[in-house]
Every structure is written in structure tokens, then in C-alpha cells.
Specification:
Blueprint (H helix, E strand, L loop, with lengths): L24 E2 L9 H14 L3 E6 L2 E7 L5 E2 L3 H15 L9 H4 L17 H5 L14 H6 L16 H15 L3 H10 L28 E2 L1 H12 L3 E2 L2 E2 L3 H7 L4 E2 L6 E2 L4 E2 L2 H4 L4 E5 L3 E6 L4 E6 L11 H14 L2
Parallel strand pairs: 1-3
Antiparallel strand pairs: 2-3, 2-13, 4-5, 6-7, 8-9, 9-10, 10-11, 11-12, 12-13
């Protein structure tokens, strides 16, 4: 079995400066310029889909809420966008370089190990899901396994594939280069500064599966905490005047570097991107299996969140339905 070498492990000193957990304020839709009729229609549609919780937030205030917004739900692949935020901080602090290759970082995997060609993939390639490394990975869906290209079929940087190997290896790289536990880091660097009300370090876990040494890292979030994360990105990485995530990183993460096989969606750094001609510039989606979504629409200063507990899932909670609903909400938003 190939080992994953730790070349340099620099411990970052964290200075937690938690924001006081201020509960979300609500705005009356009509007074905020929304059509009450259309808000009620949206509520009826959400009630029909019956997720665990749903929120519309504009200008930092709740326009609509449905369900238990404090209930913590495992948000599946939304985890990737959460990790992406931590990368923005670590890159700005000089602890991770986007141009470092897997060979530079000593990253390998179980047999069959990575080839010299695969090890030329850079951190940036992984963030864009363009590594060209098609090794088996933890937490793959049946679709990922079925569609995974053959080893060596695409050179690093040349082909987009939604690849759990990339996403899991990024977490390994983050832990090695910063010396931090991923969930403790998220709690202290993001959750505390933006005043998340429910997230705790124990709401994350590592999942390792036999084919790979790189674990997946599921997160559980409440809808109201997910909305705070979305608001952080809508506000360019700022929270109450503090730059939590670099503004340049927010822009880079939500820029489309690839056209994908998911309709009109593009892909940035661990975020799906949405059509600018429909949603305005910088619109993006953190998306997870089973109906987990954090949508940001900066042109309308809008965040839309849906979370779905395992027992609440149904076939209607698919991404295409959420995006169609988001399109209507965006058009309605003042």
C-alpha cells in the first residue's frame, strides 16, 4: 500500500473571535417589496415537496421559512463548498499553493498507486475537478462509479469529471498543510466568526472506505446555519465588517472554469455555477444528494437554502426542480 507522505506540516495558530450568535431577523415580505401572493405560492410549492427545512433570505433577513430550520441534517456534497471556503483562507495565508502538484505534496493512494503522470495534477486541478486521477474513492455514488473514466484516459487539467477522489484528497492536503482537523478548523475559522447557531465540531465525521486512504468528510448543518454560509458568500466573504474569506477567493470559487454534464451548470472551485443571464453574475450553488442546497444570487442579495433529512427524501426533491424554483424566486425578488 502506498503511503501518503507529509512533507511539511505547519500548525496555524487559530484565534477564535466568535461573533455573538444573533438569531436571524425576519422581514415582512410585502414591506420588503415582495408579492405576498407569490410568496404564498412558493410556500405551497415547498409544502408539496416537503423538505425538512427551506429558507429565503434577502439582505440578511428571512423573507420566508418553512419547516424546522434548527434541525441538523447531513448535507452530503455541500461539504465540498464548505471545504472550499477553508481553502480560501489557507491559500491566502500561504499554507497551500494552488500550483503545488500531488508529487510535490507526497500524495498517493492504495494500489494501484498513482502514476507519475497523475501526480502532475495540481491543487487547482483538484479544486476544479480536473485532476485526471480516476482512482476509486470513498463515498462515491453508483453514478460516479459507472461514469468514472479509465485510469490515464485524460491528462491533469484537461477534462472535467465530478470526482470524489479529488474532493477527498483535497481534505487530506488541507489537514497535512495546516496541521488542523477539518471540522475544528471549520468551527473556529468560519462557524464561530459568522455566528452559526447550531454547528459543533462533532457534526462532522471522517469516512474511510477500503479502496482509498483519503476519507470523505460528511458535515451536518441546520438550514439557518447553511443560510449564514450562503450569506457569507453573497457578501463577498465579509461578516459584520470582518473579511472571513478573501473576496478574491469568493469570486474565483464562483467563476465557471468548466462546462459540465449537468445541463447549463458550470463548475468553479467546489461550487456549481449558474447562468449569469438568468441569475446574474456570481450566482452559484452548493449541492448535495437528496435535496441539499445553498444557492447564492448576489445580483439580488439573495440566499435560498433547502435541507432534507434522510427520512424526508422523495423523488421530487431533485436538483432540476430546485433550480426551476430558484429561477422563479429570483425573478420575483425585488
Amino acid at each position: 500500500m502506498a503511503a501518503t507522505a507529509i512533507l511539511t506540516c505547519t500548525l496555524i495558530t487559530m484565534s477564535p473571535e466568535p461573533a455573538a450568535a444573533q438569531p436571524w431577523q425576519a422581514a415582512h415580505p410585502a414591506s420588503a417589496g415582495w408579492s405576498q401572493e407569490k410568496i404564498e405560492a412558493a410556500e405551497d410549492y415547498v409544502a408539496h415537496l416537503s423538505p425538512t427545512a427551506f429558507m429565503i433570505v434577502q439582505n440578511g433577513k428571512i423573507i420566508m421559512r418553512w419547516g424546522d430550520i434548527s434541525r441538523k441534517v447531513e448535507v452530503a456534497s455541500v461539504r465540498k463548498s464548505l471545504l472550499g471556503a477553508l481553502y480560501g483562507i489557507a491559500v491566502a495565508d500561504g499554507h497551500i499553493s494552488l500550483t503545488s502538484s500531488l508529487a510535490d505534496l507526497g500524495i498517493d493512494d492504495k494500489a494501484p498507486p498513482l502514476t507519475a503522470a497523475e501526480k502532475r495534477a495540481t491543487v487547482r486541478d483538484l479544486l476544479m475537478a480536473r485532476s485526471g486521477v480516476y482512482h476509486e474513492a470513498a463515498h462515491e455514488t453508483a453514478e460516479m462509479r459507472r461514469k468514472r473514466p479509465g485510469r490515464g484516459s485524460h491528462a491533469p487539467g484537461t477534462f472535467w469529471f465530478y470526482n470524489n477522489w479529488d474532493f477527498n484528497a483535497l481534505a487530506t492536503i488541507y489537514r497535512q498543510r495546516t496541521g488542523e482537523d477539518l471540522f475544528k478548523s471549520f468551527a473556529q475559522r468560519i462557524a464561530a466568526p459568522i455566528g452559526m447557531e447550531d454547528f459543533a465540531i462533532g457534526d462532522g465525521r471522517y469516512v474511510t472506505e477500503p479502496p482509498s486512504i483519503h476519507p470523505a468528510y460528511p458535515f451536518a448543518l441546520s438550514a439557518r446555519d447553511a443560510a449564514r454560509f450562503g450569506q457569507l458568500f453573497v457578501d463577498g466573504g465579509q461578516w459584520n465588517g470582518r473579511q472571513v474569506i478573501p473576496a478574491d477567493w469568493v469570486r474565483e470559487s464562483t467563476t465557471a472554469y468548466s462546462q459540465t454534464d449537468r445541463g447549463s451548470r458550470g463548475y468553479g472551485y467546489l461550487w456549481w455555477t449558474l447562468r449569469a443571464d438568468v441569475f446574474g453574475p456570481g450566482a452559484a450553488l452548493a449541492s448535495g444528494f437528496g435535496g441539499q442546497f445553498i444557492a447564492i444570487v448576489p445580483s439580488k442579495h439573495l440566499v435560498v437554502v433547502q435541507v432534507v433529512a434522510r427520512g424526508d427524501r422523495n423523488k421530487a426533491l431533485r436538483t432540476s426542480n430546485f433550480i426551476a424554483m430558484l429561477r422563479g424566486i429570483t425573478a420575483t425578488a425585488p
